[in-house]
Specification:
about 150 residues, eight-stranded mixed beta sheet
Length: about 150
């Protein structure tokens, strides 16, 4: 009985967010932008939505994001200390999906922000570039997802 009630609640909750362009995956809702902005402007947009630039914590989450085949900002940066990659929530990078040869500060440019490319690999970019972005709003996983 509880599972059925909770399932009905979660379906209506999911419907609400999906109507606003969000997609659900294992305890989080994701918003994939249709316009392009700088990394900072993208982060501001996520914060205004009560979310944050996406933090990719697993191979499964990487594959979920990768299916959209869109180059987009993620919540990873080394702006504070060059070469020390941290997520926007302050946690250090532990699992990564860099493209071969990345990160590289291409041609000596100060590439402090990270995009997931349309083929799914990560690439460091100049934060002032304008590309799409992905927000993540963390929720608790549904009981049957645990």
């Amino acid at each position: 009985m509880f599972k059925r009630i909770f399932h009905n609640f979660s379906n209506s909750f999911n419907f609400h967010y999906s109507q606003e362009g969000w997609r659900y995956f294992y305890g989080s809702f994701y918003y994939i932008s249709s316009i392009k902005r700088t990394w900072e402007a993208s982060r501001d947009d996520c914060l205004q939505k009560g979310a944050e630039l996406v933090i990719i914590n697993s191979q499964e989450e990487q594959e979920f994001i990768r299916q959209y085949k869109k180059s987009a900002w993620i919540g990873l940066t080394d702006r504070v200390t060059e070469g020390v990659w941290k997520w926007v929530d302050g946690t250090p990078l532990t699992t990564s999906f860099w493209r071969s040869g990345e990160p590289n500060n291409y041609y000596g440019r100060n590439e402090d922000c990270v995009e997931i490319t349309n083929n799914g690999g990560w690439n460091d970019l100049v934060c002032e570039n304008e590309i799409n972005w992905i927000c993540e709003k963390k929720m608790a996983p549904l009981p049957w997802e645990r």
